[in-house]
Specification:
Shape: globular
Length: 471
Protein backbone atom coordinates (compact mmCIF):
# COMPACT_ATOMS: atom_id res chain seq x y z
CA UNK A 1 0.00 0.00 0.00
CA UNK A 2 2.80 2.41 0.89
CA UNK A 3 4.59 1.61 -2.35
CA UNK A 4 1.42 2.46 -4.32
CA UNK A 5 1.17 5.80 -2.53
CA UNK A 6 4.85 6.56 -3.07
CA UNK A 7 4.73 6.05 -6.84
CA UNK A 8 2.55 9.09 -7.60
CA UNK A 9 4.64 11.19 -5.22
CA UNK A 10 7.81 10.22 -7.07
CA UNK A 11 6.16 11.02 -10.42
CA UNK A 12 5.15 14.46 -9.15
CA UNK A 13 8.65 15.10 -7.83
CA UNK A 14 10.20 14.02 -11.12
CA UNK A 15 7.85 16.24 -13.09
CA UNK A 16 8.58 19.18 -10.81
CA UNK A 17 12.34 18.72 -11.37
CA UNK A 18 11.99 19.19 -15.14
CA UNK A 19 12.83 22.63 -16.48
CA UNK A 20 9.80 24.89 -16.73
CA UNK A 21 8.89 25.85 -20.31
CA UNK A 22 8.92 29.54 -21.24
CA UNK A 23 5.56 31.13 -20.70
CA UNK A 24 3.40 33.01 -23.19
CA UNK A 25 3.02 36.68 -22.29
CA UNK A 26 -0.46 37.76 -21.27
CA UNK A 27 -0.47 40.38 -24.03
CA UNK A 28 0.41 37.80 -26.72
CA UNK A 29 -2.39 35.57 -25.49
CA UNK A 30 -4.78 38.52 -25.37
CA UNK A 31 -4.09 39.30 -29.05
CA UNK A 32 -4.78 35.71 -30.02
CA UNK A 33 -8.03 35.42 -28.06
CA UNK A 34 -9.23 38.71 -29.55
CA UNK A 35 -8.46 37.48 -33.07
CA UNK A 36 -10.18 34.17 -32.34
CA UNK A 37 -13.34 35.99 -31.27
CA UNK A 38 -13.66 37.50 -34.76
CA UNK A 39 -12.71 34.42 -36.84
CA UNK A 40 -14.44 31.62 -34.90
CA UNK A 41 -16.92 30.65 -37.61
CA UNK A 42 -18.03 27.14 -38.48
CA UNK A 43 -19.69 25.94 -35.30
CA UNK A 44 -17.96 23.95 -32.55
CA UNK A 45 -16.03 21.67 -34.93
CA UNK A 46 -14.69 24.61 -36.92
CA UNK A 47 -13.85 26.62 -33.80
CA UNK A 48 -12.02 23.71 -32.18
CA UNK A 49 -10.17 23.06 -35.43
CA UNK A 50 -8.99 26.70 -35.49
CA UNK A 51 -7.71 26.46 -31.91
CA UNK A 52 -6.02 23.14 -32.63
CA UNK A 53 -4.25 24.48 -35.71
CA UNK A 54 -3.15 27.71 -34.02
CA UNK A 55 -2.33 26.52 -30.49
CA UNK A 56 -1.15 22.94 -31.05
CA UNK A 57 0.31 22.87 -34.55
CA UNK A 58 1.60 26.41 -35.15
CA UNK A 59 2.22 28.27 -31.89
CA UNK A 60 2.93 25.10 -29.84
CA UNK A 61 1.48 26.70 -26.72
CA UNK A 62 -0.08 23.40 -25.64
CA UNK A 63 0.54 19.77 -26.55
CA UNK A 64 -1.84 17.44 -28.36
CA UNK A 65 -2.42 15.36 -25.24
CA UNK A 66 -3.17 18.31 -22.95
CA UNK A 67 -5.41 19.86 -25.62
CA UNK A 68 -7.46 16.66 -26.03
CA UNK A 69 -7.63 16.11 -22.28
CA UNK A 70 -9.12 19.56 -21.78
CA UNK A 71 -11.46 19.04 -24.75
CA UNK A 72 -12.78 15.75 -23.36
CA UNK A 73 -13.71 17.51 -20.12
CA UNK A 74 -15.42 20.35 -21.97
CA UNK A 75 -17.42 17.89 -24.06
CA UNK A 76 -18.83 16.36 -20.88
CA UNK A 77 -20.18 19.70 -19.69
CA UNK A 78 -23.38 21.50 -20.54
CA UNK A 79 -22.57 24.61 -22.52
CA UNK A 80 -20.56 25.53 -25.65
CA UNK A 81 -17.51 23.24 -25.62
CA UNK A 82 -15.39 25.46 -27.88
CA UNK A 83 -15.85 28.51 -25.65
CA UNK A 84 -15.16 26.40 -22.58
CA UNK A 85 -12.02 24.97 -24.19
CA UNK A 86 -10.73 28.49 -24.85
CA UNK A 87 -11.50 29.37 -21.22
CA UNK A 88 -9.66 26.28 -20.00
CA UNK A 89 -6.50 26.93 -22.02
CA UNK A 90 -6.52 30.61 -21.07
CA UNK A 91 -6.88 29.65 -17.40
CA UNK A 92 -4.12 27.05 -17.62
CA UNK A 93 -1.70 29.61 -19.07
CA UNK A 94 -2.64 32.76 -17.11
CA UNK A 95 -4.73 31.86 -14.07
CA UNK A 96 -8.33 32.99 -13.58
CA UNK A 97 -7.95 36.24 -15.49
CA UNK A 98 -6.50 34.36 -18.43
CA UNK A 99 -9.57 32.12 -18.52
CA UNK A 100 -11.97 35.04 -18.15
CA UNK A 101 -10.29 36.96 -20.97
CA UNK A 102 -10.13 33.94 -23.29
CA UNK A 103 -13.74 32.94 -22.71
CA UNK A 104 -15.03 36.50 -22.69
CA UNK A 105 -13.38 37.47 -25.97
CA UNK A 106 -14.81 34.31 -27.52
CA UNK A 107 -18.29 35.74 -26.85
CA UNK A 108 -18.11 39.56 -26.87
CA UNK A 109 -17.50 40.17 -30.60
CA UNK A 110 -20.45 37.94 -31.40
CA UNK A 111 -22.63 39.78 -28.87
CA UNK A 112 -21.90 43.21 -30.35
CA UNK A 113 -22.37 41.96 -33.92
CA UNK A 114 -25.66 40.27 -33.04
CA UNK A 115 -26.98 43.38 -31.30
CA UNK A 116 -26.30 45.33 -34.50
CA UNK A 117 -27.84 42.70 -36.77
CA UNK A 118 -30.84 42.31 -34.46
CA UNK A 119 -31.47 46.05 -34.60
CA UNK A 120 -31.38 45.96 -38.42
CA UNK A 121 -33.78 43.01 -38.27
CA UNK A 122 -36.42 44.57 -36.02
CA UNK A 123 -36.12 48.03 -37.57
CA UNK A 124 -35.94 47.09 -41.27
CA UNK A 125 -37.07 43.45 -41.45
CA UNK A 126 -40.24 44.40 -43.36
CA UNK A 127 -38.31 46.18 -46.13
CA UNK A 128 -38.84 44.09 -49.29
CA UNK A 129 -35.18 43.37 -50.05
CA UNK A 130 -34.47 42.44 -46.42
CA UNK A 131 -37.57 40.24 -46.36
CA UNK A 132 -36.35 38.55 -49.54
CA UNK A 133 -32.97 37.75 -47.98
CA UNK A 134 -34.66 36.32 -44.89
CA UNK A 135 -37.02 34.27 -47.07
CA UNK A 136 -34.01 32.52 -48.58
CA UNK A 137 -32.17 32.11 -45.30
CA UNK A 138 -34.95 30.18 -43.53
CA UNK A 139 -34.75 27.09 -45.81
CA UNK A 140 -30.98 27.14 -45.33
CA UNK A 141 -31.49 27.05 -41.56
CA UNK A 142 -33.78 24.03 -41.89
CA UNK A 143 -31.07 22.27 -43.92
CA UNK A 144 -28.41 23.20 -41.37
CA UNK A 145 -30.45 21.62 -38.57
CA UNK A 146 -30.89 18.47 -40.68
CA UNK A 147 -27.11 18.43 -41.11
CA UNK A 148 -26.73 18.63 -37.33
CA UNK A 149 -29.01 15.59 -36.94
CA UNK A 150 -26.87 13.66 -39.40
CA UNK A 151 -23.55 14.78 -37.90
CA UNK A 152 -24.38 14.04 -34.27
CA UNK A 153 -26.39 10.92 -35.07
CA UNK A 154 -23.63 9.36 -37.15
CA UNK A 155 -21.16 9.81 -34.30
CA UNK A 156 -23.45 8.68 -31.50
CA UNK A 157 -25.99 6.09 -32.59
CA UNK A 158 -23.73 3.64 -34.44
CA UNK A 159 -25.59 0.85 -36.28
CA UNK A 160 -29.10 -0.07 -35.07
CA UNK A 161 -28.02 -3.67 -34.59
CA UNK A 162 -25.02 -2.62 -32.49
CA UNK A 163 -26.74 -0.12 -30.20
CA UNK A 164 -30.54 -0.50 -30.46
CA UNK A 165 -31.05 1.07 -27.05
CA UNK A 166 -29.41 4.33 -28.15
CA UNK A 167 -31.70 4.40 -31.20
CA UNK A 168 -34.69 3.78 -28.95
CA UNK A 169 -33.65 6.70 -26.75
CA UNK A 170 -33.35 8.97 -29.79
CA UNK A 171 -36.77 7.94 -31.16
CA UNK A 172 -38.43 8.30 -27.75
CA UNK A 173 -36.92 11.76 -27.30
CA UNK A 174 -38.16 12.81 -30.74
CA UNK A 175 -41.68 11.66 -29.91
CA UNK A 176 -41.60 13.25 -26.44
CA UNK A 177 -40.77 16.69 -27.84
CA UNK A 178 -42.72 16.56 -31.12
CA UNK A 179 -45.97 14.88 -30.11
CA UNK A 180 -46.29 14.93 -26.32
CA UNK A 181 -44.81 18.37 -25.60
CA UNK A 182 -42.71 17.01 -22.73
CA UNK A 183 -40.30 19.68 -21.39
CA UNK A 184 -36.70 19.28 -22.45
CA UNK A 185 -35.28 18.94 -18.89
CA UNK A 186 -37.42 15.82 -18.35
CA UNK A 187 -36.15 14.33 -21.60
CA UNK A 188 -32.55 14.87 -20.44
CA UNK A 189 -33.29 13.40 -17.00
CA UNK A 190 -34.97 10.28 -18.39
CA UNK A 191 -32.16 9.75 -20.89
CA UNK A 192 -29.54 9.99 -18.14
CA UNK A 193 -31.49 7.52 -15.98
CA UNK A 194 -31.78 5.12 -18.91
CA UNK A 195 -28.04 5.36 -19.50
CA UNK A 196 -27.26 4.72 -15.84
CA UNK A 197 -29.48 1.64 -15.76
CA UNK A 198 -28.40 0.45 -19.21
CA UNK A 199 -24.71 0.55 -18.28
CA UNK A 200 -25.32 -2.23 -15.79
CA UNK A 201 -27.07 -4.55 -18.24
CA UNK A 202 -25.89 -3.45 -21.71
CA UNK A 203 -22.47 -1.83 -21.20
CA UNK A 204 -21.27 -2.37 -24.78
CA UNK A 205 -24.01 -0.13 -26.15
CA UNK A 206 -22.61 2.78 -24.17
CA UNK A 207 -18.98 2.45 -25.25
CA UNK A 208 -17.39 5.90 -25.25
CA UNK A 209 -16.36 7.61 -28.45
CA UNK A 210 -12.83 8.79 -29.07
CA UNK A 211 -11.49 12.30 -29.15
CA UNK A 212 -12.98 15.08 -31.18
CA UNK A 213 -12.64 14.76 -34.94
CA UNK A 214 -11.23 18.27 -35.16
CA UNK A 215 -8.13 17.26 -33.27
CA UNK A 216 -6.90 13.74 -33.97
CA UNK A 217 -3.75 12.81 -32.14
CA UNK A 218 -0.62 12.77 -34.26
CA UNK A 219 2.19 11.94 -31.85
CA UNK A 220 5.74 12.73 -32.80
CA UNK A 221 4.96 15.24 -35.54
CA UNK A 222 5.74 18.40 -33.56
CA UNK A 223 8.50 19.77 -31.31
CA UNK A 224 7.82 20.18 -27.61
CA UNK A 225 5.03 22.52 -26.62
CA UNK A 226 5.27 25.23 -23.96
CA UNK A 227 2.68 23.23 -21.99
CA UNK A 228 3.68 19.69 -22.94
CA UNK A 229 2.37 16.32 -21.85
CA UNK A 230 4.92 16.09 -19.04
CA UNK A 231 5.00 19.79 -18.10
CA UNK A 232 4.27 20.08 -14.36
CA UNK A 233 0.82 21.37 -13.52
CA UNK A 234 1.13 25.07 -12.60
CA UNK A 235 0.65 25.88 -8.93
CA UNK A 236 -2.55 27.81 -9.62
CA UNK A 237 -4.02 24.77 -11.42
CA UNK A 238 -3.54 22.35 -8.51
CA UNK A 239 -6.58 21.43 -6.52
CA UNK A 240 -7.18 23.17 -3.19
CA UNK A 241 -10.42 23.08 -1.25
CA UNK A 242 -10.02 26.72 -0.25
CA UNK A 243 -9.65 27.76 -3.89
CA UNK A 244 -12.70 25.74 -4.92
CA UNK A 245 -14.79 27.35 -2.19
CA UNK A 246 -13.64 30.85 -3.14
CA UNK A 247 -14.40 30.33 -6.86
CA UNK A 248 -17.87 28.98 -6.09
CA UNK A 249 -18.53 31.83 -3.67
CA UNK A 250 -17.54 34.47 -6.23
CA UNK A 251 -19.62 32.70 -8.86
CA UNK A 252 -22.64 32.65 -6.57
CA UNK A 253 -22.26 36.39 -5.95
CA UNK A 254 -21.94 37.09 -9.66
CA UNK A 255 -25.28 35.34 -10.13
CA UNK A 256 -27.08 36.58 -7.03
CA UNK A 257 -26.18 40.27 -7.28
CA UNK A 258 -27.53 40.91 -10.80
CA UNK A 259 -30.50 38.61 -10.22
CA UNK A 260 -31.28 40.34 -6.94
CA UNK A 261 -30.97 43.72 -8.63
CA UNK A 262 -33.41 42.67 -11.34
CA UNK A 263 -35.90 41.38 -8.76
CA UNK A 264 -35.71 44.64 -6.79
CA UNK A 265 -36.04 46.71 -9.97
CA UNK A 266 -38.69 44.78 -11.90
CA UNK A 267 -40.04 42.16 -9.51
CA UNK A 268 -39.89 38.41 -10.00
CA UNK A 269 -42.39 38.48 -12.88
CA UNK A 270 -40.53 41.23 -14.78
CA UNK A 271 -39.34 40.35 -18.28
CA UNK A 272 -35.62 40.84 -17.54
CA UNK A 273 -35.85 38.84 -14.31
CA UNK A 274 -37.58 35.97 -16.06
CA UNK A 275 -35.01 36.08 -18.85
CA UNK A 276 -32.19 35.78 -16.32
CA UNK A 277 -33.84 32.86 -14.55
CA UNK A 278 -34.91 31.06 -17.71
CA UNK A 279 -31.51 31.26 -19.40
CA UNK A 280 -29.72 30.17 -16.23
CA UNK A 281 -31.72 26.95 -16.48
CA UNK A 282 -31.05 26.74 -20.22
CA UNK A 283 -27.30 27.08 -19.60
CA UNK A 284 -27.37 23.95 -17.43
CA UNK A 285 -29.19 21.90 -20.09
CA UNK A 286 -27.05 22.48 -23.17
CA UNK A 287 -25.67 18.92 -23.38
CA UNK A 288 -24.81 18.26 -26.99
CA UNK A 289 -24.49 21.87 -28.09
CA UNK A 290 -26.81 24.69 -28.99
CA UNK A 291 -29.10 22.66 -31.25
CA UNK A 292 -29.97 20.42 -28.31
CA UNK A 293 -31.25 23.27 -26.15
CA UNK A 294 -33.03 25.20 -28.92
CA UNK A 295 -36.28 23.23 -28.48
CA UNK A 296 -36.23 24.18 -24.79
CA UNK A 297 -35.55 27.81 -25.67
CA UNK A 298 -38.37 27.67 -28.21
CA UNK A 299 -40.79 26.23 -25.66
CA UNK A 300 -40.01 28.99 -23.19
CA UNK A 301 -39.26 32.04 -25.30
CA UNK A 302 -41.95 31.52 -27.95
CA UNK A 303 -44.73 29.46 -26.42
CA UNK A 304 -44.59 30.38 -22.74
CA UNK A 305 -43.23 33.94 -22.45
CA UNK A 306 -44.00 35.12 -26.02
CA UNK A 307 -40.78 37.15 -26.19
CA UNK A 308 -40.72 36.48 -29.93
CA UNK A 309 -42.56 34.44 -32.57
CA UNK A 310 -41.64 31.14 -34.24
CA UNK A 311 -40.59 32.80 -37.52
CA UNK A 312 -38.47 35.29 -35.59
CA UNK A 313 -36.78 32.37 -33.80
CA UNK A 314 -35.81 30.91 -37.17
CA UNK A 315 -34.50 34.26 -38.35
CA UNK A 316 -32.45 34.57 -35.17
CA UNK A 317 -30.90 31.16 -35.71
CA UNK A 318 -29.96 32.23 -39.24
CA UNK A 319 -28.28 35.38 -37.91
CA UNK A 320 -26.48 33.32 -35.29
CA UNK A 321 -25.13 31.00 -38.00
CA UNK A 322 -23.63 33.95 -39.88
CA UNK A 323 -21.72 35.47 -36.94
CA UNK A 324 -18.54 34.28 -35.18
CA UNK A 325 -18.72 32.73 -31.74
CA UNK A 326 -20.79 29.86 -30.32
CA UNK A 327 -24.18 29.21 -31.90
CA UNK A 328 -25.83 29.46 -28.48
CA UNK A 329 -25.34 33.21 -28.95
CA UNK A 330 -28.72 33.05 -30.68
CA UNK A 331 -30.04 33.65 -27.16
CA UNK A 332 -28.76 37.24 -27.49
CA UNK A 333 -31.14 37.66 -30.43
CA UNK A 334 -33.96 36.19 -28.34
CA UNK A 335 -33.20 38.66 -25.56
CA UNK A 336 -32.93 41.60 -27.96
CA UNK A 337 -36.26 40.93 -29.67
CA UNK A 338 -37.90 40.19 -26.32
CA UNK A 339 -36.61 43.41 -24.79
CA UNK A 340 -37.74 45.34 -27.87
CA UNK A 341 -41.23 43.82 -28.02
CA UNK A 342 -41.85 44.04 -24.26
CA UNK A 343 -40.44 47.58 -24.08
CA UNK A 344 -38.85 46.85 -20.73
CA UNK A 345 -37.58 50.45 -20.41
CA UNK A 346 -40.63 52.10 -21.91
CA UNK A 347 -41.57 53.03 -25.50
CA UNK A 348 -39.01 55.84 -25.69
CA UNK A 349 -35.97 53.59 -25.16
CA UNK A 350 -36.66 50.41 -27.11
CA UNK A 351 -33.12 49.99 -28.49
CA UNK A 352 -31.52 50.48 -25.07
CA UNK A 353 -34.02 48.03 -23.57
CA UNK A 354 -33.30 45.46 -26.28
CA UNK A 355 -29.52 45.79 -25.92
CA UNK A 356 -29.85 45.49 -22.14
CA UNK A 357 -31.98 42.36 -22.48
CA UNK A 358 -29.45 40.80 -24.87
CA UNK A 359 -26.66 41.54 -22.39
CA UNK A 360 -28.64 40.12 -19.45
CA UNK A 361 -29.40 36.93 -21.37
CA UNK A 362 -25.76 36.52 -22.41
CA UNK A 363 -24.52 37.03 -18.84
CA UNK A 364 -26.77 34.38 -17.31
CA UNK A 365 -26.20 31.94 -20.19
CA UNK A 366 -22.40 31.98 -20.04
CA UNK A 367 -21.69 32.48 -16.33
CA UNK A 368 -22.05 28.72 -15.57
CA UNK A 369 -19.56 27.88 -18.35
CA UNK A 370 -16.86 29.96 -16.67
CA UNK A 371 -17.60 28.41 -13.29
CA UNK A 372 -17.41 24.87 -14.67
CA UNK A 373 -13.88 25.58 -15.91
CA UNK A 374 -12.47 27.71 -13.11
CA UNK A 375 -13.87 25.42 -10.41
CA UNK A 376 -13.41 22.06 -12.14
CA UNK A 377 -10.14 22.67 -13.97
CA UNK A 378 -7.84 21.68 -11.07
CA UNK A 379 -9.67 18.38 -10.70
CA UNK A 380 -9.24 17.69 -14.42
CA UNK A 381 -5.52 18.54 -14.32
CA UNK A 382 -5.13 15.77 -11.75
CA UNK A 383 -6.75 13.13 -14.00
CA UNK A 384 -4.65 12.95 -17.19
CA UNK A 385 -5.65 9.91 -19.23
CA UNK A 386 -8.60 8.88 -17.04
CA UNK A 387 -11.43 11.19 -18.17
CA UNK A 388 -14.07 9.95 -20.63
CA UNK A 389 -17.76 9.74 -21.41
CA UNK A 390 -20.05 7.94 -19.00
CA UNK A 391 -23.11 5.94 -19.97
CA UNK A 392 -25.59 8.61 -18.79
CA UNK A 393 -23.87 11.22 -20.94
CA UNK A 394 -23.84 8.87 -23.92
CA UNK A 395 -27.58 8.36 -23.46
CA UNK A 396 -28.11 12.13 -23.21
CA UNK A 397 -26.25 12.58 -26.49
CA UNK A 398 -28.51 9.97 -28.11
CA UNK A 399 -31.53 11.86 -26.80
CA UNK A 400 -30.06 15.03 -28.26
CA UNK A 401 -30.26 13.46 -31.74
CA UNK A 402 -34.00 12.96 -31.34
CA UNK A 403 -34.47 16.44 -29.91
CA UNK A 404 -32.63 18.08 -32.80
CA UNK A 405 -34.66 15.97 -35.25
CA UNK A 406 -37.82 17.41 -33.69
CA UNK A 407 -36.42 20.89 -34.24
CA UNK A 408 -35.70 20.04 -37.88
CA UNK A 409 -39.27 18.83 -38.31
CA UNK A 410 -40.57 22.09 -36.88
CA UNK A 411 -38.44 24.20 -39.21
CA UNK A 412 -39.33 22.18 -42.32
CA UNK A 413 -43.03 22.35 -41.46
CA UNK A 414 -42.73 26.06 -40.91
CA UNK A 415 -41.26 26.84 -44.33
CA UNK A 416 -43.47 24.35 -46.18
CA UNK A 417 -46.61 26.52 -46.25
CA UNK A 418 -47.14 30.01 -47.60
CA UNK A 419 -48.65 32.50 -45.19
CA UNK A 420 -52.26 33.29 -46.00
CA UNK A 421 -52.45 30.79 -48.85
CA UNK A 422 -55.74 28.99 -49.39
CA UNK A 423 -56.91 26.06 -51.45
CA UNK A 424 -55.81 22.45 -51.42
CA UNK A 425 -52.87 20.97 -49.55
CA UNK A 426 -50.66 21.07 -52.65
CA UNK A 427 -51.71 24.63 -53.47
CA UNK A 428 -50.65 25.82 -50.01
CA UNK A 429 -47.17 24.32 -50.24
CA UNK A 430 -44.31 26.75 -50.75
CA UNK A 431 -42.47 24.84 -53.48
CA UNK A 432 -39.76 27.49 -53.84
CA UNK A 433 -38.84 27.33 -50.14
CA UNK A 434 -38.85 23.52 -50.17
CA UNK A 435 -36.62 23.51 -53.24
CA UNK A 436 -34.19 25.87 -51.51
CA UNK A 437 -34.16 23.66 -48.41
CA UNK A 438 -33.48 20.55 -50.50
CA UNK A 439 -30.71 22.27 -52.44
CA UNK A 440 -29.12 23.52 -49.22
CA UNK A 441 -29.28 20.04 -47.67
CA UNK A 442 -27.60 18.50 -50.72
CA UNK A 443 -24.91 21.19 -50.67
CA UNK A 444 -24.18 20.59 -46.97
CA UNK A 445 -24.44 16.80 -46.79
CA UNK A 446 -23.31 15.71 -50.24
CA UNK A 447 -20.85 18.38 -51.30
CA UNK A 448 -19.71 19.48 -47.81
CA UNK A 449 -20.02 23.20 -48.55
CA UNK A 450 -19.55 25.62 -45.67
CA UNK A 451 -22.45 27.04 -43.71
CA UNK A 452 -21.68 30.65 -44.65
CA UNK A 453 -21.52 29.75 -48.35
CA UNK A 454 -24.87 27.97 -48.24
CA UNK A 455 -26.60 30.72 -46.27
CA UNK A 456 -25.26 33.40 -48.62
CA UNK A 457 -26.38 31.50 -51.72
CA UNK A 458 -29.86 30.86 -50.29
CA UNK A 459 -30.22 34.49 -49.18
CA UNK A 460 -29.40 35.73 -52.69
CA UNK A 461 -31.75 33.15 -54.19
CA UNK A 462 -34.54 34.28 -51.86
CA UNK A 463 -33.91 37.91 -52.76
CA UNK A 464 -34.10 37.02 -56.45
CA UNK A 465 -37.28 34.98 -56.09
CA UNK A 466 -38.99 37.78 -54.16
CA UNK A 467 -37.83 40.32 -56.72
CA UNK A 468 -39.35 38.27 -59.55
CA UNK A 469 -42.58 37.75 -57.64
CA UNK A 470 -42.25 33.94 -57.50
CA UNK A 471 -42.94 33.73 -53.78
Amino acid sequence: MKAQQAAPDLAVAAAASRPTAPVVSFFAALKFWLKLGFISFGGPAGQIAIMHRELVEEKRWISEGRFLHALNYCMLLPGPEAQQLATYIGWLMHRNWGGIVAGGLFVLPSLFILIGLSWVYVAFGSVPWVAGLLYGIKPAVAAIVLQAVHRIGSKTLKKPGTAPLLWAIAVASFAAISFFDIPFPWVVLMAALTGWLGQRWLPRQFAAAGGHDAAKARPGTHPRALIDDDTPTPIHARFKKSRLVSVLAVGALLWLLPMGGLVIWQGWSGALTQMGWFFTKAALLTFGGAYAVLPYVYQGAVEHFAWLSGPQMMDGLALGETTPGPLIMVVAFVGFVGGWSKQVLGPEAVFLAAALAATVVTWFTFLPSFLFILAGGPLVEATHGRLGFTAPLTAITAAVVGVIASLALFFVAHIAYRNGAGGSFLARLDWAALALALSAAVALLRYKLGVITVITACALAGWGLRGMGWT
